[in-house]
Amino acid sequence: MAAALLPALPAGKTPAGKTPAGRTPAGTATSGTATSGTATSGTTPASTPRSVLADAVRRVADAALEATVVGSWSRLGVAARRRLWGWDAPVPAGSLAGAEVLVTGGTRGIGREAATALAAAGASVGIVGRDLERARAAAAEIRRAAGTGAGDGDPGKVWAAGADLGSVAEVAALAEQVAERVAARTGRLDAVVHAAGLLSRSRRTSPDGTELTAAVHVVGPHLLTARLAPLLAAGAPSTVVWVSSGGMYLQRLDAAALARPPDPYRGSVAYARAKRAQVALAHLWGDRLAGDGVACVAVHPGWADTAALRDGLPRFAAILGPLLRSPAEGADTVAWLAAGRAGPHPVPALWLDRRPRGEHRWPGTAAAPGEAERLWAWCEERTGGAGAAALAALAAVPAVPDLSGRGRAGR
Ligand SMILES: NC(=O)c1ccc[n+]([C@@H]2O[C@H](COP(=O)([O-])OP(=O)(O)OC[C@H]3O[C@@H](n4cnc5c(N)ncnc54)[C@H](OP(=O)(O)O)[C@@H]3O)[C@@H](O)[C@H]2O)c1
User: Fold this and answer.
1) Mean pLDDT of 235-244
2) E-strand spans in 176-313?
3) Residue whose C-alpha is closest to residue 357's, from 293, 410, 301, 403
4) Which ranges of 341-385 would DSSP assign to H, the alpha helix?
5) Which of 172, 197, 308, 381 has the least CB density, counted as fewest CB within 10 Å?
6) Of 299, 295, 162, nearest in space to 232 by CA
7) For ligand 1, is residue 378 a contact (CB within 6 Å)?
8) What count of other Cβ atoms lies within 10 Å of the Cβ of residue 151?
9) For residue 243, how far is its CA from the centre of ligand 1 (angstroms)?
10) 115-119: long-range pairs with CB below 8 Å, 24+
């Protein structure tokens, strides 16, 4: 039944440009100024020469911090930027009442902290982990931490699903479950956060025969985005957040390499390639869904003290020790973007600490011409053309009056 729901936009689809219930975008992020932790476009009507100068100084200081790498990606970076920009909470209390969000990797670490912040702000949040019972236990803990537990009259406020993001069949079933759940409530999704991830020290293969890192970080999120695209379009302006990594700076985009892991296997290389591919996928989906009011962004959370980091890079985690960010600090910009706080048109970029960042730090990592489209084709091969099917379904929906200026011409 839910499969039938997926291709069609639920009745009551609102035009791109609507403000979903309770979402309070703080501004439109382009490449310009940031005020109070929000990247906005250029000067505001209230700008004075002094505030423009102060802003320029902050931007230079932030960029200098970013150039240090360790200073930026460790907890020092969060502390410095919090003071520099006068950050407020990533998601103000009550600002997401009525919003619907899905967070993969929501059972632990960065995903769980993002889910908690979003739930605390009033959103209904679905979290996904491999094991349903573990995910249910995590959902109960998130409800407690977010203060949305028993007594709020809405047990669906934080709900759990079990799915292996590395399995095409399980991701397809997950999308149906989400559609059923959401259809019974609002008929739309305001945000999807792709936070599930791992850094495996040995070569493993998904149930579909894809190297596990590429399957969980790239193929699964591609399929989930495709299957949920109609619900995201119904929730426009909505956001898809890909939780990538600074590791991606070490690799250039190479679609063929995703199918051909390093031999002998090196988990950090497979991971960095998959994380680079996530950033490219965010652009590919962003280009295709912009006309439907769905923004796609990637986030680099810095280095956070989580199980994935401790298990995947134990020596690195031990050396950095007290400099690691807390999972909540790593989740700050993830939740901030998912909550629409960069505005309805966030810069389609890799974000760190509430600002878009460059996607290349070292020479030789620029993608070869056509490589992004080869990545798209590789994902489509593994998911039975899920992306094309989703885009065709969206194109078949009669155009709605465009109040946003974004139009439906993006595809
Ligand atoms: N920590 C860092 O410093 C850092 C830096 C850069 C990027 N990241 C990225 O941030 C994201 C979150 O990582 P984390 O550090 O918070 O790690 P974490 O605490 O180990 O959490 C990983 C999450 O991913 C889920 N997961 C793993 N494999 C899965 C699969 N096959 N199917 C479904 N869910 C799966 C886990 O759920 P279950 O175990 O319940 O299945 C868990 O919720 C990842 O994408 C990671 O690459 C982290």
Assistant:
1) 98
2) 191-194, 238-243, 294-299
3) 301
4) 371-382
5) 381
6) 295
7) no
8) 7
9) 9
10) 115/142, 115/158, 115/193, 116/142, 116/145, 116/146, 117/89, 117/90, 117/91, 117/146, 117/328, 117/331, 117/335, 117/339, 118/91, 118/191, 118/335, 118/338, 118/339, 119/143, 119/146, 119/148, 119/157, 119/158
User: Whole-angstrom Cα distance, residue 394 to residue 23?
Assistant: 24
Tokens of 133: 């019972």
Ligand 1 pocket, 9 CB below 6 A?
A: no
DSSP 341: T
Ligand 1 pocket test, candidate residues 130, 131, 300, 333, most atoms within 8 A of CB: 130
What is residue 183's predicted lDDT score, i.e. its pLDDT?
85
Question: What gap in Å lies between CA 337 and CA 91, rounded to an integer?
Answer: 9
Residue spans per domain, the chain: 88-395
Give the closest residue to 249 by CA, choosing from 267, 266, 269: 269
Mean of the per-residue pLDDT values for the chain?
87
Which atom of ligand 1 is nearest to 110's Cα? Answer: 16
What are the Cα distances from residue 192, in Å, to 97, 152, 258, 259, 327? 16, 24, 24, 26, 19
The two structure tokens encoding residue 259? 């199918």
Exposure letters 168-189 (e unless 16+ CB within 10 A, then b):
bebbbbbbbbbbebbbeebbbb
164 lines ligand 1 (CB under 6 A): yes
* Residue 36, amino acid: S
Chain-centroid distance of CA 320 in Å reads 25
Q: Does the Cβ of 195 fall within 6 Å of ligand 1? A: yes
Any idea of the CA torsion for 317, 321, 327, 332, to the nearest 10 degrees? -110
The residue among 204, 109, 118 whose CA lies nearest residue 164 is 204
The answer as to CATH 3.40.50.720 being correct for domain 88-395 is yes
DSSP secondary structure code for residue 325 in this structure = B
**pTM given for the model:** 0.89
The mean-pLDDT minimum among 28-42, 344-358, 388-402 falls in: 28-42
